[in-house]
Structures are given as C-alpha cells and as structure tokens.
Design a protein that fits this description.
Serine Threonine Protein Phosphatase 5, Tetratricopeptide repeat; globular; mainly alpha; 63% helix
Amino acid sequence: MRVSLAIYDELFTIDTDMRASDKKFIPVVAAVLLIFSAWAVGAPVLAQSGAQPAARTGSRTAAQARELDSLFIQLKQPIDGDWRTVERKILAIWSESGSAAMNLLLARGRKAIADKDYPAAIEHLSALIDHAPDFAEGWNARATAFFLMGQYGPAVRDIRQTLRLEPRHFGALAGLGMILEEVDRPADALKAYRAALAIHPWRPDVIEAIKRLRLKIGDTTL
C-alpha cells in the first residue's frame, strides 16, 4: 500500500513556531509517543547481525524492499494473530541505515531520548540526518525528540519528511495524530490516526485514540 502525502497536506498546516507552552501539554500523550519510539529502540540493528548492508546510506536493498512489501501484507492478516512479530521485523528493517556509523548515531539518539536528554538526542540525530538524509528513521527519531521537547513545528516538519521517505510509517502518522490532538485539532488528528490504522490495524493505543476522538467530535462514520 502506497500513501500519497497530497491526501494529508492539510494535516501538516501547523504554526512552525508552536511549542507545548502555547497549549496545555498532556504528559500522557508524551508517554504514548515514547511507546512509538520504544518500538524502534528495541528493534535489532540488521548490520550488526550480519545482514547485507544497503547499497547506499539510508537506502534499501531490493531484497529489503520486497521483504517490507511482504511484511505489510502479513501485518493486515498476521498468522495466529501475532502482529507484534511482524511489526518487529518491519521496525528492524526501518532501523537499518546501511552504515555501521549511521546505525551508531541512531542508537545514541534513541538512548538519549530514553534518558530524556533531548538536546543530545537532537544533536546525534541531526548528525545522522546530515550524513544520511534518505534514512527515514533518522527523521522519525528526531521528530520524537522535538515533540518531547515541546517543539511541535520542527516535529511536524520531520514527520513530513519521514513520510516522504517511508509513506507507510505508521508510527510517524500516529505521532502526527498526537500533535494535532495536542493543538486542539481533533478532526485532523482523527484523520492521521485512521491513516495509521489503515496501514497497521492492530495497535491498541491507536485504536483507543480513534475511539476517544470519535466520541469527542461526535463522529459516526465507520
């Protein structure tokens, strides 16, 4: 499934200078976003496990691209309902930059996020992006750090770039939904969450967010 960003253009219209201080920052939302970050934090780095590296930093081999296509099909109808295993495999491929040095920067950025040292995370991840601008997971991880610093504008810009590079990035779409919910745009947040659910139908946090927002805005569509 390929998703055109043009469909979601209106979701990215947000004040680029908006910060958490401009709106009521809900700690629970930040905690949920950390769940998305943690998916990737726990994903194995393929280059360190002997997998074939990508041809250029941030790109994927043809074999990885085929495997991702297969995994996204499996994610819709996982064997024995085991979507978590399929999800982990997707995250593992997303986490592979094709460069041991870039993988190390990603690992350092994720660790800094886990340690709540967000400026350090942004420093590591910005270096990663500078050297591997085609690596979607670098942008996604930095978006997480920006969000947790309350810098919504930079977070949205990084989410948009993540989705340009990997349109099926369900974590980035869910993160966009969280930001839109934070800035009191529940209808747009619902669109973002639904886009994430269309790709990954099983995340309980996304399902719960959709239920919550449907009640809030009185949405009766299926």
